[in-house]
Amino acid sequence: MTTPQDAISAARKDGRSALDEATGKQLLETFGVTVPQSIVTKDADSAAKDAGGLKFPVVVKVMSQDILHKSDAGGVKVGLQNADEVKDAIATMAALPAIKKATVDGYLVEEMAPAGQELVVGGLKDPQFGPLVMVGLGGIFVEVLKDVAFRICPIEEIDAREMLAELKGAALLKGARGQKPASEDAIVDVLMKVGGDNGLLMQLEDDIAEADINPLIVSETSAVAVDARFILTEQKSS
Ligand code: ADP
Ligand code: MG
Q1: Is residue 238 part of a domain?
Q2: Domain containing residue 48: CATH number
Q3: Lower Cβ count inside 10 Å, N or C end of the chain?
Q4: Is pLDDT above 80 for 54?
């Protein structure tokens, strides 16, 4: 098993300023955050064989350093029911202009997370305060309304609960407007694994400049990180 340090060193050696999505999810898994079962495949032809062990339906996503917003580039296809659909989805993606001109590392094929509310959990290394952890409700709540809560790491469980209570959209988590409630305990657990004393941001503070789990899909019983981006700190060449 690769350790977080090995994965980070390998990315740096490769000249990368960020971890690819599959590596980012392995990192989260090391810290106990649930991520979907997944495989990485090279192209449409190898997909059927590689994806054989996964439970359908699955999602296919393009992996490329050149593509930050995969959906915008046509690089995310959810709800694929069998190996043929996976193969077709990759072939279609590979032919899209935005993907054709990118350097593609491969295609991530992963299981669908249980349905739930989409949240964002993130972090960054502040030059003055050190690691900060952030949580917000997904979609327009983060992007338009900037409804997010920040804390300086390390946080305790009570801080994590306060962060959630602070959100203007906090009522939505409890299941307002006909939505199923999102498990507060599952969110708090992820916040501790990211921002707690033994959490990812504290443990890797020399290497992680920014962390972004967007979205974390939270059902009544689970929280699954379905997208993960980690930007590495700049290192003085030694
Ligand atoms: P990007 O943010 O780069 O466009 P994401 O990986 O976040 O790509 O995927 C886009 C959207 O697709 C997510 O916000 C989520 O709604 C959905 N999605 C992605 N992966 C999964 C998954 N494993 N299970 C369920 N839904 C997913
Ligand atoms: Mg995303």
Answers
A1: no
A2: 3.30.1490.20
A3: C
A4: yes
Span from the CA of 199 to the centroid of ligand 2 (angstroms) = 22
Q: The tokens 């979205």 sit on which residue?
A: 215
Query: Is the domain of 66 the same as that of 30?
Result: yes
Distance 237 CA to ligand 1 centre (A): 35
Which range of residues forms the domain containing residue 47? Answer: 4-111
pTM greater than 0.85 (yes/no): yes
Tell me, what CATH number does 175's domain have? 3.30.470.20
Dihedral (CA of 16, 49, 71, 176) sign: negative
Mutate to test the pocket of ligand 1, among 20, 70, 117, 226 (most ligand atoms within 8 A of CB): 226
Number of domains in the chain: 2
User: Would you call 120 helix, strand, or coil by DSSP?
Assistant: strand
With a 6 A CB cut-off, is 113 part of the ligand 1 pocket? Answer: yes
Domain boundary among 57, 80, 111: 111
Task: Assess whether the C-beta atom of 172 lies below 6 angstroms from ligand 1.
Answer: no
Ligand nearest to the CA of 212: 2
Q: Are residues 149 and 199 in the same domain?
A: yes
Residues 6+ apart with CB under 8 A from 57: 78, 79, 80, 81, 111, 112
Q: Do 105 and 148 sit in the same domain of this protein?
A: no
Q: Which atom of ligand 1 sits closest to the CA of residue 67? A: 3
111 CA: nearest ligand 1 atom = 23
Alpha helices in 137-225 (DSSP H): 140-143, 157-166, 170-173, 184-195, 200-203
Are residue 139 and residue 153 in the same domain, yes or no? yes
Q: List, for residues 146-195, the tens digit of each pLDDT value.
A: 889 999 999 999 999 999 999 999 999 999 877 899 999 999 999 999 99
